[in-house]
Amino acid sequence: MKIRKRTLLLFCLLAYVGSYVTLSLNGYYYPGAYGLQGEKWFNWSPAGFSSRKEYRWSYTMMFFYLPLWEVDRIWIHPVDFGTTDGPIIFLKDLKPKNEN
To answer: Which residues in 80-92 are b (16+ Cβ under 10 Å) and which e?
Structure first.
């Protein structure tokens, strides 16, 4: 009986971590705060954590994956304060270009 519980616990843990890794591999930097001159900094957003169109965070996903998300933001994808070669260029590419 103990072996089944351990196996089930290990399977659930691997599924939890594996699903987060999959989401993180498809993630992007998302604006963390806006100011008068545009975006102030960018937080890492795994796929499904935020909406690019509505500029909203999915708090359900954030709370469910909070321990892994914090480790990811500290060790793998730290906060980006908008360097010239960072996410600002990425976000500019997302906006439609007006052709005059």
So the answer is: bebeeeebbeebe
Rounded to a whole number of angstroms, the distance between the first and last alpha carbons of the chain is: 71
Rounded CA gap, 79 and 41, in Å?
7
pTM equals 0.70
Specify whether the backbone of 79 is left (phi greater than 0), alpha (psi in -120 to 50) or beta: beta
- Tell me the pLDDT tens digit for each residue of 13-60: 999 999 999 999 988 888 877 778 777 788 888 988 887 677 788 889
Tokens of 76: 């793998």
Dihedral, 20, 21, 24, 26 alpha carbons, nearest 10:
-110
Is the four-CA dihedral 82, 83, 87, 88 of positive or negative sign? Answer: positive
